[in-house]
């Protein structure tokens, strides 16, 4: 059922207000998060208490199934204060949503979602191996990367390639999927101290390992498809499309933060040998005007694309492969545009931006790391270009 315009506006106001309410805490502990290589406990508690981890999950498990365009605005607001905090909020909202929508009814769902709303980390790539056992269970082994927020989670959603006991791939006769996701308690996970990076330090996106962990079928999910056991229309999308609001909001929030910094102390500074403040220079004003327009265009493009996509879903229409490619290309283009905006801001930061404690340097490092994510790879442009040209679209994550 579609939301009315009044319901949409009420929902939008509520979730932006929730995101704004945690801003002072995220700002206060941003440096501690970066230094500790994981989000500070105070920031985690603030996000959780504001209900932001429940934003994307189905109503059936205590979530709010917020409209994807509103999710973008909420994540944007969080990232405009601290990009790492926004990133962790994204993961902690989307990972349990994926688990809740794809776990079948039964003990697995009841265990994970039966008490306090869970904190779930995970890795999209199926980097491990799930070996099918004769009793119907699976044995997990492997090493996974980029598990954002794992140090303050209770569960890990690990995707893995399915193999038979002899190491072969399953056949049609085995009636097994090629890839599965498994919900594993954190106490069974070996977390590595591997998050030594140039940006998004506060996300704590460590590697982790599983060694001969046995997983029961009720704790296993499908991977990458559109089948969902619960949740609203948005849950019927492919995985990357479902997750697109998060990455979009993080990119926009990074650009907004950079522009906000330029309108503050940075723009009011003077440079040796130049008359007046940086913001008084015509060249700066021209470039600032252009970058502001590019940010606003990216934002409008993102929101309109997701509004249209959700309207299709609410009308019962499937999102066609060509439109799905458009959504993925949108996320990539928005990210690329926001990288340009942040680079511009850093360029005008002057000598102060050379120091590691510079907010402008921090947001540049953050978005450069975020832009390396597989969800915003150039293959998105190739796929939408192929569809628009009437050519066969090649595969890609």
Describe this structure in words.
- This protein has 397 residues and is of the alpha+beta class.
- It has 3 domains: 98 residues, Butyryl-Coa Dehydrogenase, subunit A, domain 1 (Orthogonal Bundle), CATH 1.10.540.10; 103 residues, Butyryl-CoA Dehydrogenase, subunit A, domain 2 (Beta Barrel); 152 residues, Butyryl-CoA Dehydrogenase, subunit A, domain 3, CATH 1.20.140.10.
- 48% of the residues lie in helices and 13% in strands.
- It is built from 12 helices and 7 strands.
- A 7-stranded mixed sheet has the order 5-6-2-1-3-4-7.
- Strand 1 and strand 2 form a beta hairpin.
Indicate the percent of residues in helices: 40-55%
Number of strands: 7
Rg from Cα: 22 Å
Strand content: 5-15%
Look at the structure and give the CATH class of the largest domain.
Answer: Mainly Alpha
Average pLDDT reading: 93
Tally of individual domains:
3
CATH superfamily of the largest domain: Butyryl-CoA Dehydrogenase, subunit A, domain 3
Q: Secondary-structure element sequence?
A: HHHHHHHEEEEEEEHHHHH
Structural class, from secondary structure content?
Answer: alpha+beta
Termini gap:
30 Å
Q: Which outline best applies?
A: globular
Largest sheet properties: 7 strands, mixed
Number of contiguous helices: 12
Per CATH, the architecture of the largest domain is Up-down Bundle
Unreliable spans: none
Looking at the structure, the CATH topology of the largest domain is: Butyryl-CoA Dehydrogenase, subunit A, domain 3
Strand order, main sheet: write it out. 5-6-2-1-3-4-7
């Amino acid at each position: 059922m579609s939301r009315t315009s009044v319901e949409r506006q009420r929902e939008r106001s509520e979730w932006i207000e929730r995101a704004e309410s945690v801003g002072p805490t995220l700002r206060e502990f941003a440096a501690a998060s970066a230094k500790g290589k994981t989000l500070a406990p105070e920031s985690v508690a603030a996000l959780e208490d504001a209900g932001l981890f429940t934003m994307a999950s189905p109503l059936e498990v205590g979530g709010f199934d917020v409209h994807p365009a509103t999710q973008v605005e909420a994540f944007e607001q969080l990232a405009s204060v601290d990009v790492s905090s926004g990133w962790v909020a994204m993961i902690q909202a989307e990972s349990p949503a994926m688990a809740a929508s794809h776990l079948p009814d039964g003990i697995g769902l009841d265990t994970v979602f039966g008490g306090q709303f869970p904190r779930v980390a995970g890795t999209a790539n199926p980097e491990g191996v799930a070996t099918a056992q004769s009793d119907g269970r699976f044995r997990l082994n492997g090493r996974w990367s980029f598990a954002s927020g794992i140090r303050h989670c209770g569960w890990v959603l690990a995707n893995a390639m399915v193999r038979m006991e002899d190491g072969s791939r399953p056949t049609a006769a085995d009636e097994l999927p090629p890839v599965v996701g498994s919900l594993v308690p954190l106490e069974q996970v070996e977390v590595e101290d591997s998050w030594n990076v140039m940006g998004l330090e506060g996300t704590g996106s460590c590697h982790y390992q599983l060694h001969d962990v046995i997983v029961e079928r009720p704790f296993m999910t499908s991977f990458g498809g559109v089948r969902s056991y619960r949740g609203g229309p948005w849950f019927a999308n492919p995985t990357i499309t479902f997750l697109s609001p998060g990455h979009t909001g993080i990119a926009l929030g990074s650009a907004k933060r950079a522009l906000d910094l330029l309108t503050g102390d940075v723009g009011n500074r003077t440079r040796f040998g130049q008359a007046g403040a940086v913001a008084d220079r015509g060249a700066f004003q021209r470039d600032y005007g252009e970058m502001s327009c590019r940010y606003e265009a990216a934002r409008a493009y993102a929101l309109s694309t997701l509004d249209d996509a959700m309207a299709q879903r609410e009308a019962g229409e499937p999102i066609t492969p060509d439109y799905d490619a458009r959504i993925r290309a949108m996320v990539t283009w928005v990210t690329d545009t926001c990288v340009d905006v942040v680079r511009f801001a850093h360029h005008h930061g002057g000598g102060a931006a050379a120091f590691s404690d510079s907010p402008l340097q921090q947001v540049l490092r953050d978005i450069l790391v975020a832009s390396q994510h597989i969800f915003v790879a150039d293959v998105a442009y190739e796929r939408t270009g192929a569809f628009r040209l009437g050519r066969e679209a090649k595969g890609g994550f």
